[in-house]
Structures are given as C-alpha cells and as structure tokens.
Amino acid sequence: MRIQYALREALRNIARNPLVVLGAILAVLLSLGLTFSTFVFGEVVKKNTQRWADDVRVIAYVSDDLNADQTATLLGTVFNWDEVESAFFFSKTEAQSEALDLFADQPALLRIYTENPNIAPASIRVQPGDPEDYQSIVTRLRGSPGVIEVASAGPGIDAMISLRDGLSWVALAAAIGAGAAAVLLIANTIHMAIFARREEIGIMKLVGAGNWFVRTPFLVEGMIEGLVGAGLAVVSVIGVHRLMLTRLSALPEWINIEIANEFFIGRSVFVLIAGVIAGFLGSGLAVSRYLRA
After folding, report:
1. Is the distance from CB of 57 to CB of 125 less than 8 angstroms?
2. Is 145 in contact with 78 (CB distance < 8 Å)?
3. I need a labelling partner for 206 at 20 to 30 A (CA). Which of 11, 157, 176, 236 fits?
4. Burial grade of 186 (CB within 10 A; 0-12, 13-18, 19 or more)
C-alpha cells in the first residue's frame, strides 16, 4: 500500500510541474548522454588502437654474414622473450619484393632496388605482446649478435599509447562531472516540488506523518526522472551510432566504428542504473535539506 501511495504521489508531483520535470529529465539526458557517448567514443578508439597495435612491428636488420643456423638461433632467442608476441624471419628476397612494391611510384628509389637486388637486408620482425614493451625489445635487439640496425615506429607507438590513456581519463572525468550535474539538477527539481507542496507537507507532519512517509514520494519521483532521462540517453546514443554506421560507410578501411551489441547492452544497463542512482541521490539531497529546516 505504501509503495502504491509513493508511486501515485510521485506521478502527481510530475503532473503538477511538467516543465520543471522536463528540465530535470533533459538534464539527465544530456549528462548521461555525454557519459554514454564518451564510453562509445572510447570503445571505438580502443578497438582501432588495438588493431593498430596488432600491426606494430620492431624490425631488426641482420647481417649478411649470419648463416642459417645462426639466424635460426637468433630468431628462437627473440621469440622466447617475455615481451614478444610473435617473431618471424623476413628474407632478402621478401625484402626486395617489399621494396619494389613500396617504391613503385618513386622511380629513383625503384631503380636503385632494381639494379641492386641484394641491397635490401634480411630482417627479423617482432610483434610486442604489449605496444608499451617496444622500447625494451629495441634495446635487447640492439645488443644481440648479428643485428646491424633496429627500426620501430617509436613516436607513433608513444602517441597511440598516450591517446588511449588520455581518452580513458577523459571518459572518467566526463562520467564524474556529468553524474554530479545530473544529481544537482534533480535535487533542484525536487526542491521546487517540495516548495510547491510545503503547506500540505506541514499539515502531514502536524498530524503525525513520519519522515519516510513524507520523503518516499519525492525519492520515487527523482528515481523516475533519472530513469526516464537515462533511458532517453541510451536510445539517443545508440540511435546516433546506428545512423553513423549507415551514413559513414565510406570511411577508410583502417577506421572501424562498429561496436558489438554486448558492449551496448552492458553500458546501457550501467547508464540506466546510474540514472536511478542520480535521481535517488538528488531527491535525497533535496528532501534531507528540507526536513532539516
């Protein structure tokens, strides 16, 4: 019976102040929509940086003086390092073919490799288990016998790692800031609802109504507003993402904005729960301050 009363009174409060309630719902929509959007953007960046990380290679150019056994020994040693995901030998013939493809539109360089087929050195190509370990691999390779030079996309790897970590912090900061804004805006809305019913609440307290009997409808109202706003945020963000998938089909192959449904389900549940919690905290803050007065 108490639950029915609280729900009925909450809906009455919402019907009495539709514009104020709409403002609170829009605030939750914007706040949690921003949070959800940040999650989605972070996931897109994470997926793409992981794809790029899978293509990270450290290249160790080996001396022509190494025989087959020495090359095999070096390759086995490198492969067994803890930092290494995979390693393979890239022969001079393969290096020559790669150079011809790479410089196909640069006649001067193409002529050099065509006239000197043995100029491209053989190499061992290493994929780190974690892109952050590339520098350790470079250092160890430079101290290995038979290695004449080591190359890696160091600045690019560092920039990729910085981007990934930076976006994680941005997502966290956005979630905290947006959540705080939603709580405060809901608190303001509930405070206005309490103010509008101040005489009725005063009479209820005079006739012996308990604090929770008075508080509960406002707490329920806040949770409803938070849930509705969060639901709209979920629908809006997923809808925009689906629209982007259809409108941005001509993106380069190395950019992928597709996200698994499991991600959306998990984050949607999180956002909905966050909306309810924000509504509860906001309404609880407003009610507590009023009852103390």
Report:
1. yes
2. no
3. 11
4. buried
Amino acid (1-letter code) at residue 65: D
Token pair 């539109």: residue: 105
In the chain, domain spans: 2-52+159-292, 57-152
**Chain CA centroid to CA 218, Å:** 34
DSSP H helices in 129-260: 134-142, 154-196, 198-206, 211-247
Tell me the C-alpha distance between 287 and 15, whole Å: 19
Residue 179 — pLDDT band, cuts 50, 70, 90?
A: confident
Residue 25 tokens read as 């719902």
pLDDT in tens, 93-131: 898 888 888 778 888 877 887 888 788 889 999 988 877
In sequence order, the β-bridge partners of residue 147 are 62
Q: Against a cut of 0.90, is the pTM above it?
A: no
Q: What is the pLDDT of residues 39-49, one digit of tens each?
A: 888 788 777 76
- Distances from the Cα of 44 to the Cα of 48, 163, 181, 247, 257, angstroms: 6, 12, 26, 16, 6
Look up the CATH number of domain 57-152. 3.30.70.3040
